[in-house]
Amino acid sequence: MSTDVWWKKAVVYQIYPRSFQDSTNDGVGDLAGIVQRLDYLKWLGIDAIWLSPIYPSPMQDFGYDITDYTGVDPRFGSLQDFDQLIARSHALGIRVILDVVPNHTSSEHPWFLSSRQSQTNPKRNWYVWRDPKADGGPPNNWRSVTGGSAWSLDELSGQYYLHSFLPCGPDLNWRSADVRAAVASALHFWLGRGVDGLRIDMVDFLAKDARFRDEADASYTFATAQRHLNQPEVAQTIEEICQVVEAYPDRVAIGEINPGSNVARTVSYYGKESRLQPFNFGLLGLPFEAAALKAYIQAYEAALPAEAWPNYTLGNHDTPRLASRLGQPGSRLAALLLLTLRGTPYLYYGDELGLENVVIPSDQIQDAWEARQPGKGRDPCRTPMPWHSESGAGFTQGEAWLPVGAQNRQRSVECQQQDEASMLMLYHRLIALRKRSPALLSGSLQLLNAPSEVLMYERALGDSQAITIANFSKASQKVVLPDKARGWQSIFSTQARELSKSGDSFELLPHEGILLS
Ligand code: GLC
């Protein structure tokens, strides 16, 4: 595969459409709102946007529970609005990636409404139905990601249906040729309409043990599951999905998998000739320390199959906010890593502002996961984007579906664009530096020796070179420069300060990162 495909060099920005920009003042973001903000994304240096689901949905899982794979939910707009978004994005050189959710539909999808009618319904086999155990309990010990059994009894037809996530999202049966064909046709629909890529939800769940055996270890996690996910047959499904995507030139397929920082598991999902891009979630869960990160980067780089292209991500709509996990200084360092490591960076909307989790009052909780497992709800990281600091934050003139949060309002785009030292300006500059540097875009990566609390690595491509030095310590650290970097002129600090070299070493401030080139 060519090194020159667009998505290898792209900075990808995830938009949670409900929370980006509301153009109708109903308190929920929409497609026309995203169009209004494309200029901002262009200014930031974004090459591609990934939209969390926009399809018709009862919104019990905010769009990940779909009732029509080829429509747009009226709350987000219409197909015309979608075409407009594609056209305006492409005119600005911004690609559009859609989230697709093939593992399950909404329980209100017409397919499921038919399927549950009776055990002989022609669509029965489109979902995963099993008889109760002799004692009337669920067919096996599989658990849902959101806690509790992955099976719910359907009183109407007397069998249990499988739901790997919420009960409102019954799993499709990927062993049915009709299901495969129906989902493939939906993918063709969007690819034909001009989308540049697909992010495939829960790809590791697309095949289940054919005999529905119990997980041997009942306390299994989704990284260790042997039966409920990660079946060898997933490879064939990934291959089919990639074939659909590749029927269109220049498109990309990205897969969501759940291995935590298990490198072997992550790289096992690249598929034939490394055509699927499995998200690398390593940085989401690791301790933010030099030694752990160094070991992870080393292991990930070493495990990548031939032709595989790496990627990194620091946040998404399922994970507490980056700045709440690492604090503001840590987040600045994380930005440096994200934009200088080897691979495609995925940036979650608002992380460029250092947005933090918002405490959601109990009467405003939206995420169904919170009711099933208190503390697991994802509302705090899905709050509206603050564009300015006035009431409504420039997001809506209505009542926002989730609170903006007083602190996040103060971190608005407008405030930060006026402050040279802000998180936003840090991202803006780092993205620009990355775009100008062949080494950062496509070069090799080599880890260099450094003090134990410092991570240092070199990127190189021909004459183009860069070195990243990140100090994870609460104390200053003296770092001796590699010989080759001693004459380099450009020094960029994450702490927006002028730095000059004195001799062959640098004194890095606590949590400071620098980029030398
Ligand atoms: C993925 C999504 C998450 C969604 C779930 C079920 O993990 O990222 O937001 O709720 O799948 O579709």
From TrEMBL:
Q: Does the keyword Hydrolase apply?
A: yes
Where does the UniProt annotation place the signal sequence?
A: none
Pfam families registered for this protein in UniProt: Alpha-amylase
Q: Which terms does the UniProt entry file under GO BP?
A: oligosaccharide catabolic process
The residue ranges of the Glycosyl hydrolase family 13 catalytic domain are 14-382
Q: Which GO terms describe its molecular function?
A: alpha-amylase activity
Which keywords describe this protein according to UniProt? Glycosidase, Hydrolase
Family statement: Belongs to the glycosyl hydrolase 13 family.
The name on file for this protein is Alpha-amylase
Q: What is the species of this protein?
A: Leptolyngbya foveolarum
Q: Lineage of the native species? A: Bacteria, Bacillati, Cyanobacteriota, Cyanophyceae, Leptolyngbyales
